[in-house]
Amino acid sequence: MLHRLSTADRAPVTLRARIDAQRPSAATRARRRLVYGGSFAVALAAIVAALALVLPAGTPAAPSVSQAAALGALGPTSAAPRGNPDAPSTLLDREVEELYFPDWLHNFGWRAVGQRVDRIGGRVAATVYYERQGHTLAYTIVGSPALEPPAATTTRLDGIELRTLTLGGRLVVTWRRDDHTCVLSATGVHPSVLQRLAAWKPPAEDHD
User: How far apart are CA 12 and CA 93, in angstroms?
Assistant: First the structure.
């Protein structure tokens, strides 16, 4: 009976015409596929970026300077480190494999205000945050061996090769020190300020 109804009793012509008129055209369907595809691509890119920050040790993808710079935008998770007992005016009591963070307050007016410790690609990546006159910068040290340097504008200051670039809207200055990768990042700060801080070395006696 159902078979006979399906072959004999069809919907009225006017109803079928209205349904056909409401169907999207081929051009509209193509535009929808493009929009949906673009949205999926954006979402996928965000997932890839998030995964890049949490790749465990031993994964094929090596950590990069861009990952280290991205840590600076996450903000501190604990209070700033105290002054180093052996060099209270030039070093902080926070280090990565015996490479200590500087205390820039007395020489440059940048006060340490917070810190965080992460791991990228199985390496320790410690970040100290500094503030001065309403601006904040992040200084990240990544454990050895040094990361592959990025393609960037290269300058030499006080014998140190500095690479300056913009990543994710943040100004980034990166360099190598004692087979570690150091990364300074900030927004609203002139490149020369970051470069000067990056090239500064505490007095030799404060390393002992």
Answer: 83
Q: Which two tokens stand for residue 138?
A: 């992040």
**One domain, residues 49 and 109:** no
Strand order across the 99-102 sheet? 83-84, 87-96, 99-102
Q: How confident is the model at residue 170, as a pLDDT?
A: 95
Domain co-membership, 19 together with 70 = no
**Residue 116 amino acid letter:** R
Alpha-carbon distances, residue 50 vs 43, 170, 180, 183, 187 (angstroms):
11, 17, 24, 19, 21
What per-residue confidence (pLDDT) applies to 190?
Answer: 96
Q: Using the predicted structure, report yes or no on whether residue 204 has a pLDDT greater than 80.
A: no
- Whether residue 101 contacts residue 113, with contact meaning beta carbons closer than 8 Å, is answered with no
Cα angle: 69, vertex 119, 173; to 5 degrees: 20
Average pLDDT over residues 128-145: 97
Q: Which domain holds residue 10?
A: 2-53
Judgement on whether residues 23 and 112 belong to the same structural domain of the protein: no
- Do 160 and 101 lie in one domain? The reply is yes
Domain shared by 109 and 203, yes or no: yes
Stated pTM of the model:
0.70
